[in-house]
Structure formats: structure tokens, C-alpha cells
Amino acid sequence: MSDDNVTFLLFWDIDGTLLTTGRAGIFAWEEAASDAAGYPVNLQSLKTAGLTDFSIGRSILEDLGFPSDGSRLSRIVRKYEEVLPLVLPHRQGRVLDGVLDILEYVRANRPDLGLYLLTGNTPDGAKAKLTYYGLFDFFQGGAFADVIGDRTDIARRALATATKGRSVDLEHVFVIGDTPSDVACGRAIGAKTIAVATGEYQLEVLRAESPWRALSVLPDVKMFLSLLGEAD
Length: 232
Fold this sequence. Notes:
The protein has helices spanning 25-37, 53-64, 70-87, 99-109, 123-132, 151-163, 180-188, 203-207, 221-229; strands at residues 8-12, 19-20, 94-95, 113-118, 142-143, 173-177, 192-196, 213-215. With 232 residues, it is α/β, with parallel strands linked by helices. It has 2 domains: 3-20 and 94-229, 3-Layer(aba) Sandwich (Rossmann fold), CATH 3.40.50.1000; 25-90.
């Protein structure tokens, strides 16, 4: 798909929006934390929704009583990335309802809609999840977690990556996600956020963040495209 044809930009979050791993990633964090600590660490109650992978790694290290920056942070995140592909089969995850229909239709019929990622996953973490669930090839790029910067920084990088210096009508830029952090990302770049209550946050919590639209689930393809048309 040529970038020259793209007039709408759709930035997608991964966990809770495109798919759920059934929290299989927690096993990877446990192994990474245990490697850092030198003893078994239980993280089954760890909260991760809306956080970047580096934020999660930093929180784990702080809870373990270790310095949470520099090489130690890089090591725990790299260990997580190494283990993640191995543990994804350990839980029953799935692509969330409506996602595949929308992505397949857009790829086949709508060259004017650019599909990008805006995620707190690292590049390798995102690739592992999307590849395992068969979604990786739908996306043209995006922005991911790095050592510095929060989710709004990722949003700004995602927009810069997608536009490559081209002018863009912000009325045609959308962030699709399932957490208040995703709504903040949309707000940070002047985009319209479609908040879906398919992750850990209930619909009323998302509505309180004042997204452009708040939905219980992703609609079917026809309704989704109609929704985008309401931005004109």
C-alpha cells in the first residue's frame, strides 16, 4: 500500500484492543523478574493495562528493591522479550471480536486507510504477539515503547512515523484503544479516540475520559467505516 494513497490514519493499541494473550505475558515477566532477583517471583496480580513495557519493568524492579534504570532495566525487558514467544501458548488468548474482519476489509478494499500501531509494547514484544495471532502483516509500522518517554511520547512518534513529513488532516486521524492512556494518546496528537471496553476498563470509566467515541466492542465493518465517516 502506497503512503501517497492514505488519507485516514488508524493507530491501534494491541493488548485489550486487537487481541488478548490471556495474560500469558505475565509468565514472561515472572521469568525475567526471577532472573533479576535470583529467586522465584510471583507476578500473577501484576497490573499492566495502559503501561509501557519499560514502565512495567521499572515497577517490577522497584518492588524487588533494585535500581530501576540503566542496564538493569534494559536486561529485565530484554529477558521478557526473549521469553515472551515461548509462553504465549501457555494461555488461551485470541484475536478480539471484529478485529480481523476490519483489518482484512481495509487491506483488501480501502487503500486510503493506513493501519499503524501505537502501543506500549516494545517492537519485539509487539511482533511476538501479533505474529502469534496472525496480525503482524496488516500494519504499515507505528511506534513502540522505549526506555524514555510515556504513552503520549509514543503517540507523537507514531504520528511522525506515519506522516513522514506529509501534512495530515487531524479530522482523519484516529486512535483505537481500550484504556484511559489510549485516550490521552489521542488527545496528545489531536486525534479522535475510539475507546473500546474490550480490555480491563469498563465503558463508563472510558466515557469519563471524554474520548471521541466510547463503545462496548468494535462494531462490524460497515458500522466501523460509517463511524469514521462521521469525522467529515
